[in-house]
Write a structure and sequence with these properties.
Strand content: 35-45%
Order of helices and strands: HEEEHEEEEEEE
Shape: globular
Strand order of the largest sheet: 2-1-10-7-6
Number of helices: 2
Number of strands: 10
């Protein structure tokens, strides 16, 4: 009987060494992360001229954080801006350089469409009132004021597009957040 009592602590020690947390052996072993995917599509007079992945800016990441920590602390993400600057947008961009406010291309309040869980689009069609050359950047903002800094959520640089009075330019941001297990 004494031999069995001596074996029991050795068996328990072996179990703990093999599985140091036996009470949590059914706990999930995967982590979940959130991924951001977005494209911006540009249409000139109804014809697709560009569709590409955009760049989520550093302040865009902070905007997401702020909205999760303190909802409604900032304006909603619903404004499209355009620029004809030759400078590419980067992750550290906080504004589109030389944001356009001429020819009917001032920052616009887009139409938001819910596309399902974690998916939406933001679209606006600009109608030109003048000729504007070399439009090559689009921004997605949470402030309605043109040329206002520190509200550029995402941006994209695309091949230059020139438009004449009466032309239309449709910009559509398609945004998706999804969770992945890893």
């Amino acid at each position: 009987m004494k031999e069995n009592l001596l074996i029991l602590p050795a068996v328990l020690l072996a179990i703990l060494l093999i599985n140091p947390n036996p009470l949590y052996q059914n706990e999930a072993k995967t982590a979940e992360s959130i991924q951001y995917h977005a494209t911006v599509c540009i249409y000139k007079n109804g014809e697709l001229v560009y569709c590409g992945h955009n760049l989520l800016t550093d302040i865009g990441k902070e905007y997401i954080e702020d909205q999760l920590i303190s909802p409604n602390s900032q304006a909603s993400l619903r404004y499209i801006s355009l620029s004809n600057s030759s400078t590419d947008c980067t992750a550290s961009s906080t504004i589109l350089p030389g944001e356009l406010t001429i020819g009917g291309l001032s920052r616009a309040n887009c139409t938001i469409t819910d596309l399902g869980n974690g998916k939406w689009s933001c679209e606006y069609t600009f109608t030109l009132t003048d000729t504007v050359y070399d439009i090559r950047q689009a921004g997605y903002n949470w402030n309605s004021t043109p040329n206002s800094d520190n509200n550029l959520f995402a941006c994209d640089t695309f091949p230059a597009i020139s438009l004449e009075s009466g032309d239309t330019l449709t910009v559509r941001w398609n945004v998706t957040f999804n969770a992945t297990s890893g």
